[in-house]
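Figure-free illustration: sequence to structure, shown twice.
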Amino acid sequence: MVNALGKLGIWRHPSQMSTELAQEVEKFGYGAIWLGGSPDADLADVDRLLDATEHVVVATGIVNMWKDDAAPVARSYHRIAGKYPGRFLLGVGIGHPEATKTYQKPYEKMVEYLDQLDAAGVPVEDRALAALGPKVLKLSADRTAGAHPYLTTPEHTRQAREILGEGKLLVPEHKIVLESDPERARAIGRPRVENPYLHLVNYRSNLKRLGWTDEDLADGGSDALVDALALHGTAAQIAEGLQAHLDAGADQVCVQVLDDDPLPAYRAVAEVLLS
């Protein structure tokens, strides 16, 4: 079983995740490092980061079911879990249809993939599912340790907790920019919100379920939408926004810093929320 994750984690693409950064965020008190994108089935980056750290959990956010078959992923899970017990969480998901020509019947694909992980001996409690909509959130509660939603708000977290119920893991991702000037912050946050997410049907549909309009989603996103999805301000202001996820039922908030140098923001947020 995976160790307790703590209330703050970080989200980084493997190409942006050095061992030095992993060591620093572990010192700051972050409980988990979520490797974004679609890590390859060998999960070599997980080994690399676990080798360099002492106790932080490394999770995948997420292994893409369309890209990598369950069998090699399961072999990697067993290798890592055997070497680093309690420190690896296998996050899986289906990504988005625009990226995969063979994207058909996504729900059935998820069920089939989870069946294959079962057959390969990957424990339910050591895996999580990328989930946004109610049906997949329910599947994550039934077949995994819980859900890892991406590009969401505290209102989504509240709704997700109601669907998951108590005792199931809920770790939403949230982007931040350590910048108090709104225009400068939006200049950093808007491109990372718009491309590709505001052009992808699953994220657009989820945001509209939360009450955002076509106008909010147009032209790179309204200021209100960008501010909601890429928190900015002082460390205390950003921490307040992240705390809203925890108050809404998240077990951990997975923080994605958009600044060129992520360390100052990770340090500053940790000093507010983990001190």
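We now fold a second protein in the same way, so the two outputs can be compared directly.
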Amino acid sequence: MAQEGLGRLFDLSIGFAPVDMQTAANTGKRINLRMYGGIEVVLFKGAGTAGDDPVLTLKQHTASSSGTTANLAAIDHYYVKSEQTLDGDEQWSRIAQTAAATITDPGAAGTSAEEQQIVVIPVNATALADGYDYISLDVADVGGNAQLGCVLYVARDLAAQRAPSNLVAPLS
């Protein structure tokens, strides 16, 4: 019998639950990277209206709440699956950019709002500045029209492998 991946290869945590991203800025929950070698930050979003392109901002924090917050200019590439209706036949596109904390209009310039997308941002724990242990992803208000989305954190390279029920809470 094969070993399961959860607790051995990865852990999952919420960035923010599914929400209409046009109602306000969406502040991602914080996840502690001390227990992981890195994380894949995943945005899954529905199709919206032209011009309502999402703007994603990666942040680092010194504490699970309050503390000091700063932008984390560690995004030099990311991956996108994008189609009018995601149905499983899409290929990943690797998008390179100068290292920054922000992604504006992910994927095909000018059309990200109109398509369903999965955006994956890999972040190594070593990218955090000294004294910073937490990261989060914020998504700005996309504009005046409905566009559903959520963020999921996929933590990888666990410092200690455990049964899923014994994993330390990612906000700890």
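Summary for the second example: The chain has one domain: 12-159.
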